């Protein structure tokens, strides 16, 4: 990676879609052409796991991750009855991440599908070791389920029970099987070249080498590819540079 880590809904109820989507879109693209699985994946591994791993010098710079169960109360804005995965099929990863300020942060929180939680810890351990910078990492519930507001805050997030932008099909985010990383530095660019978030428009230029920008074939893309996840930057037409998912959509 060049430079100083410059990488980077049965249809859903209309009212719900309006509440959770701004035409900003992540998880659009191929979600329209391929149906989502009818049932959510089955569950995992341990309810709580602590995985320290060296990521720098000194205890304060070690990567740590803990996987725990979540409750409906914790997901009151991002989950409701009728979502394609039950609350019991989700997990919270609490982990360390390397910040844009060049320091480790121990308050990262990511809600994901239970069956991929361990794999994602492996990926984020790699990102930490390479000191790939992340602006912030908190559940979309902090933004009352608003994908638009989460992107405006340049927030890295995963689970959000919502349909794909402009589609009646569930987004991969509704399964907890997609993650958006540094969504401003890595924007969703529509097929006609527009970016919905004004302060992120400059990042349509993928030759930029700002901290957090993800490039084709770089170490971030390879880290997700190591667990079989695809990148929205490889889509035809619209590009979703922030988006990684288990099925590449």
Please give the alpha-carbon distance between the first and last residues: 24 Å
In DSSP terms (H or I, runs of 4 or more residues), the helix count works out at 4
Whole-angstrom Rg:
17 Å
Portion in beta strands? 15-25%
How are the strands ordered across the major sheet? 1-2-3-4
Averaged pLDDT, please?
A: 83
Kindly name the structural category: alpha+beta
Shape: globular
Largest sheet: 4 strands, antiparallel
Strands, count: 11
* Weakly predicted, low-confidence segments: 1-23, 29-59
Question: What order do the helices and strands follow?
Answer: HEEEEHEHEEEHEEE
Helical amount: 10-25%
Q: Into how many domains do the coordinates divide?
A: 1
Topology:
Elements: H1 14-20, E1 49-50, E2 65-69, E3 90-98, E4 104-113, H2 117-129, E5 136-137, H3 147-152, E6 155-156, E7 178-180, E8 188-189, H4 219-225, E9 230-231, E10 239-240, E11 243-245
Parallel strand pairs: 5-6
Antiparallel strand pairs: 1-2, 2-3, 3-4, 7-11, 8-10, 9-11
Tell me about this structure.
The structure is a single chain. The protein is α+β, with helices and mostly antiparallel strands and 249 residues long. The protein has one domain (14-245). Helix content is 13%, strand content 17%. It contains 4 helices and 11 strands; from the N terminus they run αββββαβαβββαβββ. It has helices at residues 14-20, 117-129, 147-152, 219-225; strands at 49-50, 65-69, 90-98, 104-113, 136-137, 155-156, 178-180, 188-189, 230-231, 239-240, 243-245. The protein has a 4-stranded antiparallel sheet, with helices on one face. Strand 3 (90-98) and strand 4 (104-113) form a beta hairpin.
């Amino acid at each position: 990676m060049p430079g100083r880590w410059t990488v980077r809904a049965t249809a859903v109820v209309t009212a719900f879609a309006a509440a959770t989507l701004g035409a900003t879109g992540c998880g659009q693209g191929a979600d329209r052409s391929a149906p989502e699985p009818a049932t959510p994946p089955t569950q995992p591994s341990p309810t709580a796991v602590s995985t320290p791993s060296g990521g720098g010098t000194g205890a304060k710079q070690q990567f740590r991750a803990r996987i725990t169960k979540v409750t409906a109360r914790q997901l009151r804005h991002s989950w409701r009855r009728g979502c394609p995965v039950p609350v019991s099929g989700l997990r919270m990863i609490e982990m360390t991440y390397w910040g844009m300020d060049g320091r480790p942060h121990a308050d990262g929180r990511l809600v994901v599908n239970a069956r991929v939680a361990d794999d994602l810890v492996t990926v984020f351990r790699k990102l930490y070791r390479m000191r790939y910078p992340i602006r912030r990492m908190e559940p979309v519930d902090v933004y009352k389920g608003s994908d638009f507001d989460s992107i405006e805050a340049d927030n890295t997030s995963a689970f959000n029970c919502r349909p794909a932008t402009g589609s009646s099909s569930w987004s991969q985010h509704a399964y907890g099987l997609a993650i958006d990383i540094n969504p401003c530095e890595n924007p969703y660019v529509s097929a006609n070249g527009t970016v919905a978030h004004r302060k992120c428009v400059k990042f349509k230029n993928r030759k930029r080498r700002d901290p957090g920008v993800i490039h084709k074939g770089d170490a971030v893309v390879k880290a997700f590819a190591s667990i079989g996840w695809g990148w929205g930057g490889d889509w035809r037409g619209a590009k979703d540079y922030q988006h990684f998912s288990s099925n590449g959509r």
